[in-house]
Amino acid sequence: MERFSNISLKPYNTFSIDTIAREMYSFSEEKDLIELLEMHPKQPVLILGGGSNLLFTKPVDQLVLKNEIKGTQVIEEDEESVIVKVGAGENWHQFVSWAVEQGFGGIENMALIPGTVGAAPMQNIGAYGVELKDTFVELEAIQLDNQHVHRFDHKKCHFGYRYSIFKGPLKGEYCITRVVFKLKKNNKLNTSYGAILTELQKRDLVHPTIRDIYETVIDIRKSKLPDPQKIGNGGSFFKNPIVDIATLTKIKQDYPKIPHYPMDLDRVKIPAGWLIEQKGWKGYRRDDIGVYPQHALVLVNWGNGSGAAIWKLAQEIQSSVADTFGIELEPEVNIL
Ligand SMILES: Cc1cc2nc3c(=O)[nH]c(=O)nc-3n(C[C@H](O)[C@H](O)[C@H](O)COP(=O)(O)OP(=O)(O)OC[C@H]3O[C@@H](n4cnc5c(N)ncnc54)[C@H](O)[C@@H]3O)c2cc1C
């Protein structure tokens, strides 16, 4: 393990916010995490992965513990599938690339999502019609206040849209250390999502392989989303709101073309980016912060913007959307 004091977190968050952490340790084994927690009893802790779903609005007083537990291990295998156990500190995209390389399917639609494997169950990451929960088997986690090791199967995680129990009642109580997935050898590819389908047709790929989907997703994402290495951002800043049919009907009176996708019989999902765009925020810039010109759902730090300024802008966007549409946008990014 390694200790850092009064360290700038700028290189450790994709928004590139220059905030200071009083004390930070990196750890690469469960026993080191347990030792660190024992050394700092009762101290509030922030588990840090790749920092791609965090907005720092002030200096960080919590003890920052950076998860670097590595390892990708096939623990079971039959003709149809493999069970793989992955260290929480592994980079998510590298894990997806490894799976594609082996011919194991199920996560290729989630290529290029930044961050670590351990943070992926936190908000049940998802992209292009596939979510983490579709291949998830179980996870191991250490309870921060007593260092007990627990296993959470699918049911115990209470996965939902960009949600798990770790973002709800158990928020801040566990460090996820390993995640187990079931990947398929002859995977039924998910090409139903509009953008993928269009791109595959453009490329004349009638019988796409896992790798074709993986490469297509990477290309689509590169064309739509800012690269955090160049422009600070946290991906989608807000969740897409889910509203009842009565709310949709009311909005339709003024906005008959409002896009919406059925969730169940009574509820629809509305793209938050569309709502933000209607209010004229797309491409908005104030000093070094703003809304990405190609994607209204992505707030950006063009250089030396502060987390507090980005959060203030986010709240202004929330108010303007609520005033017009009566919809409260909920941040997807964790605000600290
Ligand atoms: C350009 C861009 C595109 C994105 N696209 C998508 C997308 O398509 N779909 C999607 O779902 N998300 C997307 N995201 C969001 C982000 O990549 C995911 O939420 C990712 O899983 C966060 O991983 P991380 O390791 O960076 O987590 P961090 O930002 O480090 O942490 C996020 C939260 O999880 C907690 N945490 C982290 N690791 C652990 C652990 N091991 N145990 C317990 N708690 C932990 C942290 O304390 C924090 O509360 C995108 C982000 C960016 C910047």
Quote the CATH topology of the largest domain: Uridine Diphospho-n-acetylenolpyruvylglucosamine Reductase, domain 3
The major pleated sheet works out as:
5 strands, antiparallel
The helical percent reads 25-40%
Q: Order of SSEs, N→C?
A: EEHEEEEEHEEEEHEHHEEHEEHEEEHE
Q: Compute the number of strand runs.
A: 20
Helix tally?
Answer: 8
Question: From the alpha-carbon coordinates, what is the Rg to the nearest angstrom?
Answer: 20 Å
- By secondary-structure content and strand pairing, the structural class works out as alpha+beta
The overall average pLDDT, rounded, is: 95
Q: Strand percentage, roughly?
A: 25-35%
| Integer count of domains | 3
Shape summary: globular
Question: Keywords for this structure?
Answer:
binds flavin-adenine dinucleotide, Uridine Diphospho-n-acetylenolpyruvylglucosamine Reductase, domain 2, globular, 336 residues, Uridine Diphospho-n-acetylenolpyruvylglucosamine Reductase, domain 3, 8 helices, Uridine Diphospho-n-acetylenolpyruvylglucosamine Reductase, domain 1, alpha+beta
